[in-house]
Amino acid sequence: MTPTTTTTTKTMKALVFFGAKDIRIEDRPFPQIQEPTDAIVKITAACLCGSDLHPYRGSTSPKPGYIMGHESISEVVSVGSAVKTVKPGDEVIAVFTTQCGHCFYCDRGLSSKCDQSVVFGTSALDGFQAEYARVPLADATLKLKPEGIPDLKLVLMCDIFPTAFFGVKNLLNKFEPEQRTDLVELQMGCGPVGLLAIIIAKALGVKTVFAVDYVTERLKLAEKFGAIPINLKTEDVDAVLKKATDGRGPDGVLEVVGSKDALDTAFKVVRYGGVINSIGYQHSDLPFTGLDCYLKNIILQFGRCPAASLFDESLEVFKKVQGLLDGFVDLELPLSSAVEGYELFDKQGARKLIFRPHDLTEPVHHEHK
Amino acid sequence: MTPTTTTTTKTMKALVFFGAKDIRIEDRPFPQIQEPTDAIVKITAACLCGSDLHPYRGSTSPKPGYIMGHESISEVVSVGSAVKTVKPGDEVIAVFTTQCGHCFYCDRGLSSKCDQSVVFGTSALDGFQAEYARVPLADATLKLKPEGIPDLKLVLMCDIFPTAFFGVKNLLNKFEPEQRTDLVELQMGCGPVGLLAIIIAKALGVKTVFAVDYVTERLKLAEKFGAIPINLKTEDVDAVLKKATDGRGPDGVLEVVGSKDALDTAFKVVRYGGVINSIGYQHSDLPFTGLDCYLKNIILQFGRCPAASLFDESLEVFKKVQGLLDGFVDLELPLSSAVEGYELFDKQGARKLIFRPHDLTEPVHHEHK
Fold first, then answer.
1. Angle at B75 between CA B70 and CA B78, to 5 degrees
2. Which of B282, B296, B309, B310 to mutate to test the interface with A (most CBs of A within 10 A)?
3. Contact B303 A297 (CB under 8 A)
4. Which of A110, A272, A290 sits opposite B282 (nearest CB)?
5. Mutate to test the interface with A, among B178, B270, B302 (most CBs of A within 10 A)
6. Rg (CA), chain B
7. From CA A59, how far away is CA B72, in angstroms rounded?
8. CA A198, CA A226: separation in Å to the nearest integer?
9. Per-residue pLDDT, A8
10. What is the pLDDT of residues B29-81, one digit of tens each?
11. Given this structure, which CATH class describes domain B162-302?
12. Which residue of B has its CA nearest to A294?
């Protein structure tokens, strides 16, 4: 099935990256099937993710001109001839990367390292903050929308819930099964990924989770989800943890911030033989030496979540905890307000927000229940 | 039971560290019970380990005056009042560190990080290259000599066999069980620990082990034990591995050398999502950044082997592979020839050698069968 001739001349609205603090709603050509494995989707909801702020803030400088966003729920409009698992009319959720689904890495649960893995909403591939989008490798990238989960929650499954699950799972599986429930975990960072990681850690039975941040509102939610909050501004992280662990430090640290400072704190406080799992985008040198690592008997893990590989497994946990996620997405905006949405998100005026490219004209606020 | 008055005035022969390339056989006081948890042992065999060469070569500079060596088989002469598991007359093997046996770390299989863990043959604790030695925390440090294993093989259980086992076990347990047998492993270094690690990896079912070194004799043994040798001097490690793995690189790397160069090679060649386990004594900065780690989805593990914790588990594997270890220790010397022994070992004139402080007057050579 290919788009009709009329669609090739249509345009659509899209949020385009031009440079730091320079993003614009523009008219763009309606996306076309380019490969037999492509699908074209009509965006129902496109999320704004913390990592969209890297180019927005100028901390990365990608080649401009691309459509932003890598989290979406959508409806399939047309599919290429080789697409087998979705058809026009299907409601779907896209994971934040493309992948082939059948290579060495895809077979081993590491879809984020598939040769054909590209992140949506980058200079390499237009994203979802638009009315429509092209989805390459649709069979492995689009998942049929599961029953009974409202879009406002389901969007978390595009990236940040599987990412948080990836972090917690890989932290836990470094310990013998009989040690897992008694673990003292430290989490560096309580943004959206961090809060979900607390929910997941508790759901997977971790007894004690300490959560570090400097934003009071985030720490309140961390506590609500079962963590013991530590405010970086007013408390001595190391002292609090030493007191709680007979002077040893936590067994494992989940680092979700992606900063060298957070990794430095993680390394300093973790106990001998402990585990640091960094799911943040680490982009500096490392704040410890080989000798430090040897002396600490440390285990370290880094890297990008393979959301396609982990989708089904993390969805099972998602279904169990979704009752906690009312109001997690706290703002819906029409796509026409996307520029204002970025400004607000940048200033932490919203925790997690989505754009509705169709059928929404006014902002809708949600409160955490 | 305490030593008799006569023993307190006795002296014994011991190899003492004075500085780089300055070690001497000296008369030392006969060791005494100092704590109720101590034992005094008569050394039957004391091994020379690669790490003894660090101070000998001047690459570390410990405070001089201590008796060297941390690998021994011995007979218990006397024990303090609190010692329960060994008695005078017992033939025993000592692991290379002391440990309490019942703290948080000892309970979790990490005896090398026990608060009371001290390495024998350092400025902190006299070692075993002597006629007699004091063994603190004897209950957790001395193991009754298992039946049916000759001393010439059993000495490997003091340190290097458990250390090699620690490395291989921790490399394998980072992979899902169903992936373990198909692994392509790279091993950096084919000294004694490296050769044992090859034997262990093959015994645990690893299909393909590549082994890197630049010493032809070592590479020949590596091949004999089932590895595919790569000569650093004449071959391109990365190219060989890429060719064998469809361009990906090995799944895991065991780094037994403890050099920054070896770790650098390990990181460069390992595949995405791969594992590097470094059991070498890393003492430099790290040859990769946080961004490198993120992009590689790497898992890293470092640190000293908890030989006491792993003794029983590694002994089970040892019993299965001991048939391969005839001639692994290739030289026995009287303790009076210890200075010459160090010189020879330093020049790789012997693979693994032991000193016999009693009942040996001439060197005995063994050939690998």
1. 100
2. B282
3. yes
4. A290
5. B302
6. 21
7. 57
8. 7
9. 52
10. 999 999 999 999 999 999 999 889 999 999 889 999 999 999 999 999 999 99
11. alpha beta
12. B303
One fold for A5-159+307-313+324-365 and A162-302? no
Amino acid at A160: I
Facing B294 at nearest CB: one of A104, A108, A282 = A282
Long-range contacts of A175-181 (CB under 8 A, 24+ apart): A175/A251, A175/A252, A175/A275, A176/B109, A179/A251, A179/B108, A180/A204, A180/A205, A180/A206, A181/A205, A181/A206, A181/A207
CATH of domain B5-159+307-365: 3.90.180.10
Select the residue of A110, A248, A289 nearest B284 (Cβ to Cβ). Answer: A289
Given this model, what pLDDT does residue B5 score? 44
- Asked if A222 and A198 touch (Cβ cutoff 8 Å), the reply is yes
Q: What is the DSSP string of B228-289?
A: EEEETTTS-HHHHHHHHTTTS--SEEEE-S--HHHHHHHHHHSPTT-EEEE-S---S--SS-
Q: What is the pLDDT of residues B108-165, one digit of tens each?
A: 999 999 999 999 999 999 999 999 999 999 999 999 999 999 999 999 999 999 999 9
- Alpha carbon B69 to chain centroid distance? 11
The strand pair at A71-79 and A39-48 is best described as antiparallel
Shortest distance between the Cα of B115 and any Cα of chain A, in A, equals 11
What ranges do the domains of chain A cover? Answer: 5-159+307-313+324-365, 162-302
Give the relative orientation of helices B192-203 and B307-321 as an angle to the nearest 10 degrees: 70
Asked casually if ipTM beats, i.e. exceeds, 0.90, the reply is yes
Residues 6+ apart with CB under 8 A from B159: B47, B49, B70, B71, B95, B96, B305, B307
Q: Are B194 and B187 in contact (CB under 8 A)?
A: yes
- Those residues of chain B whose CB sits closer than 8 Å to some CB in chain A are 104-105, 108-110, 112-113, 176, 179, 246, 248, 260, 263, 272-273, 278, 281-286, 288-291, 293-304
Q: What is the pLDDT along chain A (369 residues), one digit of tens a residue?
A: 444 444 456 899 999 999 999 999 999 999 999 999 999 999 999 999 988 999 999 988 999 999 999 999 999 999 999 999 999 999 999 999 999 999 999 999 999 999 999 999 999 999 999 999 999 999 999 999 999 999 999 999 999 999 999 999 999 999 988 888 789 999 999 999 999 999 999 999 999 999 999 999 999 999 999 999 999 999 999 999 999 999 999 999 999 998 999 999 999 999 999 999 999 888 889 999 999 999 999 999 999 999 999 999 999 999 999 999 999 999 999 999 999 999 999 998 898 999 999 988 888 998 876
The residues on A that touch B, with CB distances below 8 Å, are: 104-105, 108-110, 112-113, 176, 179, 246, 248, 260, 263, 272-273, 278, 281-286, 288-291, 293-304
Please tell me the distance from the alpha carbon of residue A47 to that of residue A52, in angstroms, as a whole number: 10
Query: What is the distance between the alpha carbons of residues A109 and B273, in angstroms, rounded to a whole number?
Result: 10
Domain A5-159+307-313+324-365 has CATH 1.10.1370.40: no
Q: What is the distance in angstroms between the Cα of A78 and the nearest Cα belonging to chain B?
A: 34
Residue B289 to residue A284, Cβ atoms within 8 A: yes
Length in residues, chain B: 369
Distance set, CA B49 to CA A110, B71, B207, B277 (Å): 40, 8, 29, 21
Across the beta sheet with A184-188, the strand order is: A228-231, A208-213, A184-188, A252-255, A275-278, A299-302, B299-302, B275-278, B252-255, B184-188, B208-213, B228-231
Q: Which pLDDT score is estimated for A179?
A: 85
* Nearest CA-CA partner of A74 in A132, A3, A6, A146: A132
